[in-house]
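WARN no homologs supplied; continuing
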Amino acid sequence: MKMLAVAMGLIILASFGCNRANTKGSNEPQVEVAYQLIDDGQYSEAIDLFWTLLQHEDTPTIRIGLASAYAARAGILVQSYWDLILPLIKPQPILRNAKVDALKKDWKLLILKFPSHVQNILIQNEEKIFKSYEDLENFKTRFETIPLLTRIDQVGDVNMARSIIKDVAYRGTHLYRALLSLVLIRYEADQSLTQFHQIMSALDRNKSCSTQIKYWITNLENLSFLISDLIFDLKISYPSKVAEIEPFEKEFKNYSNTTNGLSNLLHSNLCN
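OK structure emitted
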């Protein structure tokens, strides 16, 4: 019986047209040991061994194994989420959200606490604010089947996994990167919501919100970068499904343009 981690590596390579014989190296027995360490839950040990192997020989099998070890250490077991990617990018109905409704209901009372020039800015941009908040809440709901990272070391491991296989030019590795990007997109969307609430809280208490909005802008920039990477990897992974991917691309570009403009406007006018 094949080891689970080895089997997943073969799926990534073979199911997308790559000949495993072309990816083998002279250290194949040690590679098998490293994959076994992943199956045994010894992720840090597997990472150390894969790095040692990579220094002597750079093959797709070693890079995929190393990326898999980092992802597994972050709690991302690829085989559990492999079939989730395409359903997540299909157009989704926009549902009413109680939190968005509550923000709209309390909005007029909230803005009364600010000086008149601030009130004017908020009133002029209230629809953008509502839309940005609604989009973030919808993203959170949309991606709830994707695991949520809760620690910064997990984020670092997933980013490392994406980086390691970035230049492995097989469709399977691009699909793997797409999945890892989705994991980070959920994390950044969740962080963006947290920062949004902190911004509203800082404004509500008449405190400086500069730090919160700077964090928010960083989260939004990370989201835009990850989404661009996700779309690029999906188009390579599924060349026959580009038409299905393009509406997803348009949806997120519209969101990114609206929200980035809003965050910069708030920072320039409300956080001096």
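The mean pLDDT is 78.
OK
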